[in-house]
Design brief:
23 helices, 66% helix, mainly alpha, 2 domains, four-stranded mixed β-sheet, 500 residues
Length: 500
């Protein structure tokens, strides 16, 4: 291996991933912020704690997500300590895997320089850094998808190497892991199968085309589904009622307005408007020139946009489904500008007189300069958001202190905000560990079920925060059996009568 190749190898396999890890660790207040998300961090943490305590998912712990993330997080917390810092380091590790595999994929398609620039664009894209240190499952699931796509890219690059089928199997296995972290990546499966088929068709001449062309995509699909099924069977997650019915039921659909989902989905595209402009340019070229080998991110972006426009509810973390292909295509847009920047005195071309003779490289160059100017604004927005989270810390800490004050008298804590249970080290009844927005607003859990939990566990402390619905459900029961102890802008705290 030549000295140049060694430097490139170290750049992409050490400097970029480690550099990102250190940058995120330094730039994001990973230790100081009480919570980065309104509820998901607490839900993921408390599920992992209950799993470590021996409670079974789907039978004892109601859970509308696949099990793999909870299992891995539980193992990680058991190994490195049950702290928010430790848990966020795990998410950052997933994010580093995503950044590494994304940079390697771009390197295969566009070369070293554009891969570096494209990776930097992904890192500073809207919400990426925040999601890189939040204890949530969307980014880990997409990290597995990106690893799968990178391995698939290696397969294409090395075809027809004798070990290429092993790469197909590994790619399918990694996607199976993604499905068992979060099911929202399932729509990418047909895209990958289509991409493999197109690749196979292009590699063989018409005389060689036969049913064997389907063997490779079928092998990938088999590896994906078998691994996913084995994980589901191992952790008893083949539960239609919890995994799918709660999300697809009529109650859920009517509980959230379609208009809100559509507005949020459209806003995603506007938050990285510079990338969107480059993406439109790149997609136009791909379609006009029929560059089907570059069409995968186009199809991914279009389908994810359609899916989110018709899905209820849509949350901010769903943007990753769009930002990854968006950045991929924006990088292709950068490539289109290379001919322009290779000209002597290219900067002198930016004149109104030249506007009538505009070319695609010229337009791409203008968009790149625009993207450079808005980059500091994006970083500034992240800093402002970090400050906002830090300002909220004091109210959160006051509530944890109140819980700790009565901890020695407490066997169970009933709360719709489990992040407080994690910080205070208090157990919650497994039936209400996941009181997500979807479960509450769709009435997937009833007043009778909640009161039954209170009667069964007789929790010494009750902390209600996010849901007026739950407070209405429990109002009479709490008035009869509990005393309101504290209230602030975030939550209301109750003590069981007789508790000092």
């Amino acid at each position: 291996m030549t000295n140049h190749k060694v430097k490139i190898f170290l750049l992409f396999n050490l400097l970029i991933p480690v550099g990102f890890f250190i940058f995120a660790l330094t730039f994001m207040p990973i230790k100081q912020v009480f919570q980065f998300d309104s509820s998901d961090e607490g839900i993921e943490l408390i599920k992992a704690i209950l799993y470590l305590d021996g409670f079974s998912m789907y039978t004892q712990v109601w859970n509308d997500q696949p099990p793999l993330s909870t299992v891995i997080l539980g193992f990680w917390l058991n190994l490195f300590g049950k702290s928010i810092y430790s848990a966020r380091l795990l998410t950052l590790t997933y994010a580093t895997m995503l950044v590494w595999s994304f940079s390697q994929t771009l390197r295969i398609y566009f070369g070293n320089l554009l891969a570096i620039i494209g990776t930097l664009m992904l890192i500073i894209s809207c919400n990426f850094l925040r999601l890189s240190v939040s204890v949530m499952i969307g980014l880990p699931s997409l990290a597995m998808v990106m690893l799968s796509i990178f391995i698939l890219s290696l397969y294409k690059q090395n075809f027809p190497h004798k070990n290429s089928q092993l790469l197909i199997l590994l790619s399918g296995v990694l996607f199976g892991f993604s499905l068992q972290i979060k099911l929202f990546t399932a729509f990418i499966i047909p895209l990958i199968l289509f991409d493999i088929i197109i690749f196979q068709v292009n590699k063989y001449n018409r005389q060689q085309l036969n049913w064997k062309v389907l063997l490779t995509p079928l092998l990938w699909l088999a590896a994906c589904l078998i691994v996913s099924l084995l994980i589901a069977i191992t952790w008893n997650s083949l539960n239609y009622e919890q995994l799918l019915q709660a999300r697809l039921s009529e109650k859920t659909i009517t509980a959230f307005l379609a208009k809100n989902s559509q507005i949020l989905t459209l806003s995603f595209l506007l938050q990285d408007f510079d990338y969107l402009l480059l993406t439109i340019l790149a997609s136009t070229v791909i379609i006009q020139k029929k560059q089907w080998k570059n069409s995968f991110p186009v199809i991914w972006l279009v389908i994810s946009f359609i899916v989110l426009m018709n899905h209820r509810p849509v949350w901010y973390h769903h943007y990753l489904l769009m930002s990854i292909p968006l950045t991929w295509l924006a990088t292709y847009g950068l490539q289109l500008s290379l001919d322009f920047f290779r000209q002597n005195k290219w900067y002198s071309k930016f004149k109104l007189a030249n506007f009538s003779q505009i070319t695609i490289p010229y337009l791409a160059a203008v968009l790149i300069i625009f993207a450079i100017f808005v980059t500091p604004i994006k970083l500034g927005v992240i800093l402002v958001e970090n400050h906002k989270y830090l300002e909220q810390n004091q109210n959160h800490i006051q509530l944890v202190d109140i819980l700790l004050k009565h901890k020695k008298y407490t066997n169970w804590l009933f709360t719709d905000y489990p992040i407080y249970a994690f910080y205070s080290g208090l157990p919650v009844p497994p039936e209400i560990a996941v009181l997500s927005h979807i479960r509450i607003e769709s009435n997937s859990i009833t007043a009778e079920q909640l009161i039954s939990v209170l009667q069964m566990y007789r929790p010494e402390q009750v902390l209600l925060c996010k849901s007026q619905t739950i407070q209405q459900y429990l109002s009479n029961y709490l008035n009869q059996n509990y005393v309101q102890n504290y209230k602030n802008s975030l939550c209301t705290h109750f003590l069981l009568k007789g508790i000092p």
